[in-house]
């Protein structure tokens, strides 16, 4: 019974100390009974001290066996120094249970931190005394009046021989009591003013059962909620490691039920979590400049929220007569002015989750803001639209700064190059390919340009504008960057401009409005006095003159120059002169004939003679003509249009033209002159008749081919001149040239898909040379079969060419080939 009484008394004191409930309270008896029951059920058996001693000894021995004598000695010395108390075995048992690989984790250096360093107290000095009580009072230096029981009375007899001292009391001060005047201005603090705050803090910090929730006034709950929204620590809310705000304690108010109160506090906790996330996100270090601008815009939004919270708090600090303390009203008001921030937070959180922490994950954040701004505009939510569009425009303005530099000067940015939509592809590429190979678009995995969604419609325009500036810089035309006011241009992309446009045209969607703003923005980056690339190509480079020169040199556009060149060349071939394959002689011949055309620079022409397996040094003259390769040096600016310095189509057309002209030269009347035959032409009979008939048919065929060649060359040359003159840039010029080159190659039968037709035409042209040899041997018996065989080959190849041209013209829609096929079939029939 004595033990039960002791336990009961201890439980009574324990309940009174921890809960503050007295014996008069109705809940005191139940609480004490539950406490006594818990103490009885919590009893456990004591550990075996001998077992603990043996385990410690075994651990010391284990350390020694494993060659850790230092740890074993340190453990043994501390075991020996332990006091002999009843709880030592229990403490050692707990430490043994908590130990985890003691041999690997033991470090003797950790024991140094447990040593207590004794520091002796410092001696008192005059500096310390003066620091606490400065000797600035005038009474300190005054004369001491000896009063009753003064020690001076005892020394008066012995100090009669001393001289009197001079008084140190100041004579310039008045006799007013400054201390009394100062006391009149001292305000004593009222300790009772913070009584309510201390009471609330003690109530909230005191541990209680879930069934015994403390009661709080609605005003104090609003005060705690406002502090949480500001990011300050509170007793009612706690912030986790991930920035999530949660309810930390249970309470109740007199004006609301517990479920309703829990729901309202949960709403506030959710809002607080979003605000904590935004505040932390705006303080992150990001390398992208446009993200930093978005962070600044979001920080401005949170600053506006803080101002609204301050106004809300001011209303309760200095309440008016009409001020109503309502938690529900506060929740509605807070939800209203934090709604835009909550939406921004959800956008940023979704973007962070999608990017998996990758800061350089394209422009997903800008794209998400752009999409949400369009949705908010369509929904007519102006407050939400202003917040999202403001953050979007802040990021777009910063992103467009390097874009503006690229379009004005043609220089790539030096920072954040991986996030720019243009990359340096080949820095040391030839000048003739610099437009097409030096720069390239930076593409993502989906073949989309590495740029925000709002900039995608202008990518090709911006890409060409920057390349144009870089191209002009190489031509000596430096861009005047001072002509463009960058600051005013960037300032146009502001919420004020957007709001003004939406006011004047409220039915325009935001995406169309932003596209219109960007279009005006990019249009204003070009100064009206800036030299354009089209002007440089047409006036300074004189592109049209170079194209006319190519027509005169390769395609025989100047007939007189062509006749002068072919006449001299074919005469050398007929005489069998060895100079015809001398490239220096041929170069001088071409420069003096073809180079005499008005549009041709003679010094740019060069001739070479090929000698390889495909072009043997011996054989028929028509095959030897294919060895002559003509080249014309055009400027590197023109090469960016033609995409080639060798001009293979023009070289092949020149080779075909030589073979056509030589065939016509061989079939001339001078060669087939009856008077020059060394035998009686009347005796030739049928062979002569067949030869003359084949000659007429060959002349007819060559005439049609020459007419077709001249028509195609003239038509395409005129069309090329007009198209190039109306082109606005090198890209369009190169596209026009590529189309011209493709059609010219097809119409002249130089394309690979019509190679059999070209072979048949060349075979017919070579028949003229074979017919010349047969003409000189008409008196032989083999002349008639040879001429008959050539006539059969002519008919066969002619029918093949006509049928092939008909098929190709129907498939490709080339009217020139269809007309050629009709002429060949009609005349052949």
Automatic annotation (TrEMBL):
Instruction: From the Swiss-Prot or TrEMBL record, give the protein name.
Output: Spindle pole body component
Q: Which GO terms describe its cellular component?
A: gamma-tubulin complex; microtubule; spindle pole; spindle pole body
- Pfam families to which the protein is assigned, alphabetical: GCP5-Mod21_N (PF14609), GCP_C_terminal (PF04130), GCP_N_terminal (PF17681)
Similarity remark: Belongs to the TUBGCP family.
Ranges for domain Gamma tubulin complex component C-terminal: 543-827
Please list the GO terms describing molecular function. Answer: gamma-tubulin binding; microtubule minus-end binding
Q: Which organism is it from?
A: Elasticomyces elasticus
Q: Indicate whether Cytoplasm appears among the record's keywords.
A: yes
Keyword Cell inner membrane found: no
Q: Gamma tubulin complex component protein N-terminal domain: from which residue to which, for each copy?
A: 222-475
User: Which compartments is it annotated to reside in?
Assistant: Cytoplasm, Cytoskeleton, Microtubule organizing center
Residues forming the Gamma-Tubulin ring complex non-core subunit mod21 N-terminal domain are 65-145
Disordered as annotated region, ranges: 148-169
Question: What GO biological process terms are annotated to this protein in UniProt?
Answer: cytoplasmic microtubule organization; meiotic cell cycle; microtubule nucleation; mitotic cell cycle; spindle assembly
Name the UniProt key words of this record, in alphabetical order: Cytoplasm, Cytoskeleton, Microtubule
């Amino acid at each position: 019974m004595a033990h039960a009484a002791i336990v009961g008394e201890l439980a009574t004191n324990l309940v009174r100390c921890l809960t503050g409930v007295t014996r008069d309270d109705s809940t005191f008896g139940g609480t004490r009974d539950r406490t006594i029951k818990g103490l009885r059920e919590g009893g456990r058996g004591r550990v075996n001290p001998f077992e603990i001693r043996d385990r410690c000894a075994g651990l010391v021995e284990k350390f020694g066996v494993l060659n850790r004598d230092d740890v074993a000695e340190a453990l043994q010395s501390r075991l020996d120094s332990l006091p002999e108390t009843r709880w030592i075995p229990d403490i050692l048992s707990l430490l043994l249970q908590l130990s985890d690989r003691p041999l690997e984790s033991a470090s003797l250096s950790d024991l140094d931190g447990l040593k207590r360093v004794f520091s002796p107290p410092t001696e008192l000095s005059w500096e310390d005394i003066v620091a606490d009580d400065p000797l600035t009072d005038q009474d300190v230096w005054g004369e001491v009046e000896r009063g009753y029981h003064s020690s001076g009375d005892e020394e008066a007899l012995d100090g009669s021989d001393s001289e009197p001292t001079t008084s140190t009391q100041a004579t310039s001060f008045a006799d007013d009591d400054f201390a009394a005047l100062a006391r009149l201005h001292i305000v004593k603090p009222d300790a009772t003013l913070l009584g309510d705050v201390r009471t609330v803090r003690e109530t909230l910090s005191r541990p209680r059962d879930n069934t015994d929730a403390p009661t709080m006034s609605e005003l104090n709950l609003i005060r705690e909620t406002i502090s949480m929204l500001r990011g300050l620590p509170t007793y009612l809310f706690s912030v986790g490691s991930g920035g999530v705000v949660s309810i930390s304690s249970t309470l109740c108010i007199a004006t609301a039920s517990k479920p309703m109160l829990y729901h309202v506090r949960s709403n506030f906790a959710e809002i607080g979590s979003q605000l904590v996330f935004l505040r932390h996100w705006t303080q992150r270090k990001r390398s992208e400049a446009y993200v930093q601008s978005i962070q600044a815009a979001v920080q401005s939004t949170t600053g506006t929220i803080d101002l609204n919270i301050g106004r809300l708090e001011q209303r309760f600090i200095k309440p008016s007569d009409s001020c109503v303390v309502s938690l529900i009203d506060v929740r509605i008001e807070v939800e209203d002015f934090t709604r835009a921030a909550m939406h921004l937070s959800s956008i940023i959180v979704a973007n962070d989750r999608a990017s998996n922490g990758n800061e350089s994950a394209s422009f997903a954040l800008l794209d998400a803001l752009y999409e949400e701004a369009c949705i908010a505009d369509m929904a007519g939510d102006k407050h939400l639209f202003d917040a999202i569009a403001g953050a979007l425009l802040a990021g777009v303005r910063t992103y467009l700064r390097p874009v503006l530099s690229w379009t004005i000067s043609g220089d790539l940015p030096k920072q954040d190059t991986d996030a720019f939509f243009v990359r340096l592809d080949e820095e040391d590429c030839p000048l003739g390919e610099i437009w097409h190979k030096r720069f390239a678009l930076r593409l993502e995995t989906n073949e989309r340009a590495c740029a925000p969604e709002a900039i995608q419609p202008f990518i090709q325009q911006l890409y060409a504008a920057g390349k144009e500036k870089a191209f002009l810089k190489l031509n000596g035309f430096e861009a005047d960057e001072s002509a463009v006011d960058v600051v005013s241009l960037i300032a146009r992309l502001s919420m004020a401009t957007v709001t003004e446009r939406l006011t004047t045209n409220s039915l325009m969607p935001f995406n169309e409005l932003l596209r219109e703003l960007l279009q005006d923005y990019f249009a204003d980056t070009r100064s009206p006095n800036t030299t354009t690339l089209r002007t440089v190509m047409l006036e300074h480079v004189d592109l049209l003159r170079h194209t006319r020169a190519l027509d005169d040199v390769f395609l025989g556009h100047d007939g007189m120059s062509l006749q002068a060149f072919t006449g001299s060349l074919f005469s050398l071939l007929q005489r069998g002169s060895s100079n015809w394959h001398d490239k220096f002689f041929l170069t001088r011949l071409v420069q003096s004939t073809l180079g005499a055309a008005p549009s041709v620079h003679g010094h740019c022409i060069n001739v070479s003679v090929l000698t390889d397996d495909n072009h043997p040094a011996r054989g028929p003259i028509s095959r030897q003509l294919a060895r002559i390769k003509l080249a014309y040096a055009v400027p590197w600016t023109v090469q960016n249009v033609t995409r080639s310095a060798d001009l293979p189509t023009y070289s092949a057309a020149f080779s075909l033209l030589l073979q056509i002209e030589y065939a016509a030269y061989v079939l001339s009347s001078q060669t087939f002159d009856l008077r020059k035959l060394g035998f009686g032409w009347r005796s030739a009979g049928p062979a002569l008749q067949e030869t003359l008939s084949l000659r007429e048919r060959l002349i007819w065929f060559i005439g049609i081919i020459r007419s077709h060649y001249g028509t195609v060359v003239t038509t395409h040359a005129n069309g090329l001149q007009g198209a190039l003159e109306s082109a606005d840039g090198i890209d369009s010029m190169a596209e026009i040239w590529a189309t011209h080159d493709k059609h010219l190659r097809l119409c002249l039968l130089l394309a690979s898909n019509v190679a059999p037709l070209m072979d048949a035409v060349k075979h017919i042209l070579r028949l003229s040379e074979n017919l010349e040899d047969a003409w000189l041997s008409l008196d032989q018996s083999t002349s008639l079969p040879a001429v008959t065989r050539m006539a059969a080959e002519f008919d066969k190849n002619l029918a093949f060419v006509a049928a092939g041209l008909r098929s190709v013209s129907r498939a490709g829609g080339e009217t020139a080939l269809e007309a050629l096929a009709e002429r060949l079939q009609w005349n052949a029939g």
